[in-house]
Amino acid sequence: MRRWAIAFTAALALVSIQPVLAATFRQGVVQNFADLATASCHNPEGITADAGGTLYAAGLSGNICVVNGSGQITRVIPVAAGDALLGELFVDGQIYVADNNGDFSGGRVDRVNVATGAVTVIASGFANTNAFERDGNGTLYVSDSFRGAVYTVNPTTGATALWIQSELLRSHGFPGFGANGLAFDATRSNLYVANTGDDRIFRVAVNPDGSAGALSIFADGATIDATHQTTGSLDGADGIVFDASGRLWVCANQANEIQVLSPTGTNLVKRFSGSGDDAMNFPASPVFVGHAMFVTNLYFATPGAGKLSVLGAAPGAP
Questions:
Q1: What CATH number does residue 118 fall under?
Q2: By the 8 A CB rule, do 48 and 89 touch?
């Protein structure tokens, strides 16, 4: 009888928890998740997550802020005081972070040991490091927005090589950041590159030897707007990530939206912005954790502000 009572109590507790979780991460609804408007965590730009779902947000504070599943800041990892930290990538207990001078006069790639907090500069000499990807061999790809380029970085030796550079990957609009978010498709046969200032997503074919192949326009915001009688498509395309169905999720920082491109890149199939206090403000980088998407809000025009948003049960998440 006692064993039955314990089981019943456990089941009752589980049932009572489920509505709370559903309310916290409602499908298709953008909600505030973590307040990062603190001296140590303000203006977050990059985000990554470990296998357990712990979030790591980096930004203009020069720190990486660790956020748990309840939206609480549990730790602050100092990286470079006064620097602007942008994109991040978590790999085997290490975080690779795009580290830029506070006045954006130069950039580098840092590796941060999560357990110890030790920071190592593994590559330097960039104009502006912004976002990361990683291929099947472990090679890092980092975008340089000011040079309209993508570089490869050997994470062990720090050896750096120009992978692709093009005028098409430079910004010709606002804001003045060109090559930005990076994402491989499921087969790693193409690397997709967001051009923030030009409201475009480019596709770069990956040759069999790993070199960059043909560069082509995958999605153009102005074309989507004209074709589908809409506005704001890909406006300020920033961080990007694919879902399991081949749709590309884009942080449109000037539209204050998460926009979802069809697998063909010809139209937006969904747009999420949040409303009221939950509205996004300069969404910069996304990361999937299970079926939830977490997004940094940079609050670019508001020094000292910042938050993480969550979009619950995003259909097709990895």
A1: 2.120.10.30
A2: yes
